[in-house]
Design brief:
296 residues; alpha+beta; Structural Genomics Hypothetical 15.5 Kd Protein In mrcA-pckA Intergenic Region, Chain A; Pseudouridine synthase; 3-stranded antiparallel sheet; 25% helix; 28% strand; elongated; EC 5.4.99.24; Ribosomal large subunit pseudouridine synthase C; rRNA processing
């Protein structure tokens, strides 16, 4: 069997060899990686090298022939060719830096101990890029726009846009009760590290429904569960939000509609690494449209 080779580009320049390999060869135990480096089974530019070696653009890493690069760089999850072909229909935009995907509700964005099928593993099966990563997150039960970067530079660029509030996000939701006017909600919310941060959302009614309102939500900040918390704070919780919602309302509505959460990331706009505007709109799926029709 021939040896396997990995070529280093500018995305991974200055990364430590051991950290790079642990990220690239996810299914190989860390102790095995260090052992292969120590024994010279893993070499850089045909030379023995230390684990702390800083990679340079143009370096060539030689791996033992028994390592399957394809299986280690992607998830072990099996997705049929038909599934992957059908999933590509959810891709709203693609270039060499980013994908914008209309994520189906119920699909986690990343894996976990209790989560097998997930967005990032699917994308890594479809695209043969080394540094595919999430640019931001949306909840498992939220559908719609989510951005995935295809290289480190793009991921860093998107995060800079987030820090400068240059990423525009618009959602659609079905909420309890009647909302007749625009509502601005500004308050302090707890973040993931349990610190309070300011949050700002704008709710605008689109259509009155049975015991509900279809609304559009524009957020100026992106705090954890911001829209769901804000909707609950004004007594207009999102339909089928089982964490912040109204159980009695959910039960009543579920006689008419699918029991999914009715929150959808409708529009996302941000700048590409060269400053060009990327703006995508994710159409509502059949279950969301069906609920609007049944509640009209």
């Amino acid at each position: 069997m021939p040896v396997k080779k990995l070529n280093i580009n500018s995305d991974n320049e200055n990364r430590r060899l051991d950290n790079y390999l642990m990220n690239r060869l996810k299914n190989i135990p860390k102790t095995n990686i260090y052992k292969m480096i120590r024994k010279g089974e893993i070499r850089v530019n045909s030379k023995r090298i230390k684990p702390l070696y800083k990679l340079k653009s143009g370096d060539e890493i030689r791996l033992p022939p028994f390592i399957n690069i394809d299986s280690t760089s992607n998830s072990n999850e099996y997705y049929s060719d038909k599934f992957l072909k059908d999933f590509k229909k959810n891709i709203l935009f693609s270039n060499s830096n980013y994908l914008v995907i209309n994520k189906p509700y119920g699909l986690s964005v990343h894996g976990g101990t209790a989560t097998k099928s997930n967005l990032i593993s699917i994308i890594r099966k479809i695209y043969n890029y080394e540094n595919i990563d999430l640019c931001h997150r949306i909840d498992k039960h939220t559908s719609g726009c989510i951005v995935v970067s295809l290289n480190k530079k793009a991921n860093i660029s998107f995060n800079r846009c987030l820090l400068k509030n240059e990423v525009q996000k618009v959602y659609k939701a079905i909420v309890k009760g009647s909302i007749g006017n625009d509502i601005e909600i500004e308050n302090e919310l707890f973040s993931r590290n349990h610190k309070t941060k300011s949050s700002l959302s704008y709710f605008s009614p689109i259509k009155k429904l049975k015991k509900s309102t279809l609304i559009q939500v524009k957020i100026e900040t992106g705090r954890t569960h911001q829209i769901r918390k804000h909707a609950n704070s004004i007594n207009h919780p999102i339909l089928n939000d089982y964490k912040y919602g109204d159980d009695k309302y959910n039960k009543l509505m579920n006689d008419l509609v699918n029991n999914r959460m009715y929150l959808h990331s409708f529009i996302i706009s941000f700048n590409d690494t060269n400053g060009a505007l990327i703006s995508c709109e994710a159409p509502l799926d059949d279950s969301f449209n069906d609920a609007i029709n049944k509640l009209s």
